[in-house]
């Protein structure tokens, strides 16, 4: 039995990156699509992000990085998810991320990387599908 | 109308009016056009949902005419180039006398690599330098700080201590070249490092020309690179203004920036209004601290974005000059005409560039650059086509610089001063933007000022609303971005070369800053930091002299910031979306 409560998503900013335009747009779009969204605010550590996700019982984490530090920070969040036994949380992200880096991040376990120009409708559909699927598995 | 009937009858209605002369004939022509326009069928395809307004949602008429000039006083509102209120430009001779400065923002990796890029740019005809710092430097952390992990050298060059600054300008004559440094929170530290670098080469501080961004208010509004809370930060800026007024006659103390406000998703009017409001807040802070407005105002400069809505951008620049002149003269009582003139740098809009079909960005940049020039910019950075993906390669930087050179030397748009002045549309839109900016000033005043409005989250919310509205208009295809929501093509990933900064830069930079710390005279560094803290705690002292001492004692940026945080604390923002 899949829970009726809305999907709950953490929208996160990590490191020293202050570009929050994209994160805020995604947060609003997911909220307007009926999800509960928690925006972490800026300058979070990977550990803080994963702790927030666990405390909030979140279905997914969307991480936005436009500073070029994506190859450090995405893997660090993956490690934290594994360390805190939370790898079922759907972890996706976006930002200025070159295609070969995005490929590598997907290989490491990031579920999807959205780059500039990705339609909001695609992102919403992805989150609904993947997080909904997770709900079916973990209840 | 009676007069018209007396005219000889002609073959067709609109033709008769068109051949008529005088005011009545013109009125008839207008009526005929309106009727003909009403018969027309408007476009309905994707992208046509926004033909009746600018990209910032300012409503547009299909046509402007002399009736739109009614109520405008030419002497009061438009005047001549080089004359108050400077709507048509700050120089009587425009670009006939002096082209804009082509100044490409650059910085990546370590100081050695960036120094090589500077030598390249100067050898290609660039006229001034512009330093891009990396995130740890901008946020006040050394390269070996845990917060710097993964960020060193990525968005710009890593500068930890005086040693790095010296490497950055190796072989460059600081008495000749002007330098712009885009740094805000730690701006006083960067200035101290620059002074120390020049003085070690024998160039006195009084001979240094350049600009420091040092606009902290827009950090809270948009860019989010702050360290301390707003009030102590503004005090540091006032200290810098005092110091530069006394000791650095050729230095532009702050560059009040709308660029980042726009990049964060604001409209053109918000960029215009919030930036000017920030500027007036600094003017008020400095005069309150006892500085004479005419002693510092001539060296304030501005930095705007040039986005893709061509005429809106041109009108934004024209309105900015006029609003600034009026306020500086009428409200703040500046007497020196140089205090009334708004000088500005422009950068093409990073947020208008697309990752899809990145070569198209070359074309966008060219239009945006032309808007900046028709708006009368004093200097210009043209973005490289690949900046949406990574730091620009040398090849793409060269195309961006060539774009400016083609504009300057081939298009002839520089031959007539303010060539769009008097255009019914351009003058009307300039007026409208001024009016909308004034509405924002009233709202900011209701909060009690810029700092209070920041604390209430006013700007942040306005910008987030605007950026969401814009994104929605793309989703619905009311607006089209070529290659993004129309005219897409399947791309075999991106086939352009990208510049990547390896982890070796981070490790090397971390080792270098540790070497600086272990090889310096520890006692003098410690003493200098203690003295700096005393100056920070004492409002009657100026922080610049002890900062220069600390830099010369090889205290690192991270250590200096930490010392200052111990006095001022760190700012945290209430997260909201």
Features:
heterodimer, A: 139 residues, alpha/beta, Rossmann fold, 5 helices, 47% helix, globular, B: 577 residues, TIM Barrel, five-stranded parallel beta sheet, disordered N terminus
Overview of this structure, please?
The complex is a heterodimer of chains A (139) and B (577). Chain A has a single domain, classed as Rossmann fold (3-Layer(aba) Sandwich), CATH 3.40.50.280. Chain A has helices spanning 21-32, 46-55, 70-83, 99-108, 120-138; strands at 8-13, 36-39, 60-65, 90-95, 112-114. Chain A is an alpha/beta fold and 139 residues long. The mean pLDDT of chain A is 94. Chain A is built from 5 helices and 5 strands. In chain A, strands 2-1-3-4-5 form a 5-stranded parallel beta sheet, with helices on both faces. The longest helix of chain A has 19 residues, at 120-138. Mean pLDDT of chain B is 93; it is low at 1-17. Chain B has 577 residues and is of the alpha/beta class. A 5-stranded parallel beta sheet of chain B has the order 1-10-9-8-7. In chain B, strands 2-3-4-5-6 form a 5-stranded parallel beta sheet, covered by helices on one side. Chain B is built from 25 helices and 10 strands. In chain B, helix 9 packs across helix 24 (544-552) and helix 13 packs across helix 19. Chain B has a domain at 74-475: Alpha-Beta Barrel (TIM Barrel), CATH 3.20.20. The longest helix of chain B is centred in the last third of the chain and has 24 residues, at 424-447. Chain B starts with a helix and ends in a 9-residue tail after the last helix. Classes of the chains: A alpha/beta (139), B alpha/beta (577).
């Amino acid at each position: 039995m899949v829970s009726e409560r809305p999907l709950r998503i953490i929208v996160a900013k990590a490191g020293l990156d202050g570009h929050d335009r994209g994160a805020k747009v995604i947060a609003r779009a997911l909220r307007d699509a009926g999800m509960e969204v928690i925006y972490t605010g800026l300058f979070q550590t990977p550990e803080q992000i994963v702790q927030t996700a666990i405390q909030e019982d979140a279905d997914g984490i969307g991480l936005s990085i436009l500073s070029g530090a994506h190859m450090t920070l995405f893997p660090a969040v993956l490690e934290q998810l594994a360390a805190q036994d939370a790898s079922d949380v759907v972890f996706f992200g976006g930002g200025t991320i070159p295609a070969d880096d995005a490929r590598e991040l997907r290989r490491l376990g990031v579920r999807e990387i959205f780059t500039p120009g990705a339609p909001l409708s695609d992102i919403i559909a992805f989150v609904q599908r993947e997080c909904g699927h997770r709900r079916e598995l973990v209840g | 109308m009676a007069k018209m009937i007396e005219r000889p009858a002609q073959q067709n209605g609109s033709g008769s009016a068109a051949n008529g002369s005088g005011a009545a004939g013109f009125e008839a022509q207008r009526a005929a056009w309106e009727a003909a326009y009403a018969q027309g069928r408007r476009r309905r395809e994707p992208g046509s949902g926004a033909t009746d307004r600018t990209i910032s949602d300012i409503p547009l008429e299909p046509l402007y005419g002399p009736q739109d000039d009614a109520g405008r006083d030419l002497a009061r509102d438009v005047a001549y180039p080089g004359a108050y209120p400077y709507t048509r430009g700050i120089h009587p001779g425009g670009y006939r006398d002096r082209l804009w400065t082509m100044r490409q923002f650059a910085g990546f990796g370590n100081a050695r690599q960036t120094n090589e890029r500077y030598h390249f740019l100067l050898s290609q005809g660039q006229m001034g330098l512009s330093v891009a710092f990396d995130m740890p430097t901008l946020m006040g952390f050394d390269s070996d700080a845990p917060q710097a992990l993964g960020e060193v050298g990525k968005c710009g060059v890593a500068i930890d201590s005086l040693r790095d600054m010296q490497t950055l300008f190796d072989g460059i004559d600081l008495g000749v070249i002007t330098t712009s440094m885009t740094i805000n929170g730690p701006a006083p530290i960067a200035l101290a490092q620059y002074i120390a670098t020049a003085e070690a080469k024998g160039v006195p501080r009084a001979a240094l020309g350049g600009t420091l961004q040092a606009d902290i208010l827009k950090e809270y509004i948009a860019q989010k690179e702050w360290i301390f809370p707003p009030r102590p930060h503004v005090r540091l800026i006032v200290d810098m203004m005092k110091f530069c007024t006394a000791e650095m006659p050729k230095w532009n103390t702050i560059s009040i920036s709308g660029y980042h406000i726009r990049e964060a998703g604001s409209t053109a009017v918000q960029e215009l209004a919030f930036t000017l409001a920030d500027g007036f807040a600094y003017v008020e802070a400095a005069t309150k601290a006892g500085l004479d407005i005419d002693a510092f105002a001539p060296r304030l400069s501005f930095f705007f974005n040039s986005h893709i809505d061509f005429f809106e951008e041109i009108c934004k620049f024209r309105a900015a000059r006029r609003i600034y002149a009026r306020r500086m003269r009428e409200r703040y009582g500046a007497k020196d005409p140089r205090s009334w003139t708004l000088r500005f740098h422009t950068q093409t809009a990073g947020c208008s560039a697309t990752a899809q079909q990145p070569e198209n960005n070359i074309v966008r940049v060219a239009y945006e650059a032309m808007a900046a020039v028709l708006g009368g910019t004093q200097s210009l950075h043209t973005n490289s086509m690949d900046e949406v993906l990574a730091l620009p390669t040398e090849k793409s930087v060269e195309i961006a610089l060539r774009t400016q050179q083609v504009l300057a030397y081939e298009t002839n748009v520089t031959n007539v001063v303010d060539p769009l002045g008097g255009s019914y549309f351009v003058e009307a839109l300039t007026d409208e933007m001024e009016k909308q900016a004034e509405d924002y000033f009233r709202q900011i005043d209701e909060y009690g000022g810029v700092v209070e409005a920041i604390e209430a989250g006013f700007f942040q919310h306005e910008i987030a609303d605007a950026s969401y509205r814009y994104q929605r208009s793309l989703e619905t295809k009311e607006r089209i971005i070529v290659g993004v929501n129309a005219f897409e093509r399947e791309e075999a990933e991106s086939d352009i070369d990208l510049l990547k900064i390896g982890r070796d830069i981070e490790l090397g930079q971390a080792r270098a800053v540790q070497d600086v710390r272990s090889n310096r005279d520890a006692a003098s560094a410690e003493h200098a930091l203690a003295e700096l803290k005393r100056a920070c705690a004492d409002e009657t002292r100026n922080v610049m002299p002890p900062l220069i001492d600390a830099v010369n004692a090889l205290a690192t940026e991270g250590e200096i910031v930490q010392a200052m945080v111990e006095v001022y604390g760190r700012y945290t923002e209430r997260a909201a979306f």
